[in-house]
Design goal:
Strand content: 15-25%
CATH class: Alpha Beta
Number of domains: 1
Order of helices and strands: EHEHEHEHEHHH
Distance between the termini: 40 Å
CATH superfamily: Response regulator
CATH architecture: 3-Layer(aba) Sandwich
CATH topology: Rossmann fold
Shape: globular
Radius of gyration: 15 Å
Helix content: 40-55%
Largest sheet: 5 strands, parallel
Length: 154
């Protein structure tokens, strides 16, 4: 039995794969996205209980994903916060954020936080509300338009 559906948004391939394996081993159904464009599309096409989100992503970053969500939601931000002010992120996206975790995060702690987020009831239902498909497509195309040709080839 699944503990919930999790969308994992992480651009580092090895970290994305290992984190997905850990969450799946603890009973979560995990969908993965390598960037914000893919995340917005997944959010448009299905529902999730928790979004685990890195803020610094290629193409469309995590703040665009946060902007696309409707409150209330349960988002666990896992980021280095090197170039972001964690308090500003919390203040701007307060109704969406369950917890902010600074990388690196131990697997046990991540599972504990995601489990707590999935168990917390939301005011208007129990799932992260999907965004409209046309909004996801618009966000994805806007993000991809900012990719330089040399970035695509790499």
């Amino acid at each position: 039995m699944s503990l919930g559906a999790v969308l994992l948004v992480e651009d580092d391939r090895s970290l994305r794969e290992s984190t997905a394996e850990i969450l799946e081993a603890h009973g979560f159904e995990v969908a993965v996205a390598a960037d914000g464009a893919a995340a917005t599309w997944l959010l448009a096409t299905r529902e999730f209980d928790v979004v685990v989100l890195d803020l610094r992503l290629c193409h469309v970053d995590g703040t665009v994903v946060l902007d696309s969500l409707e409150a209330p939601a349960r988002v666990v931000i896992v980021s280095a916060f090197a170039s972001l002010d964690e308090n500003e992120v919390r203040d701007e996206f307060r109704p969406l954020i369950f917890e902010c975790l600074r990388k690196p995060v131990g697997p046990d702690h991540l599972v504990e936080v995601v489990t707590a987020a999935a168990a917390q009831p939301l005011e208007h239902g129990t799932r992260v509300a999907p965004i409209e498909p046309r909004d996801a497509l618009r966000l994805a195309l806007a993000g991809l338009a900012h990719v330089a040709p040399e970035e695509e080839a790499g």
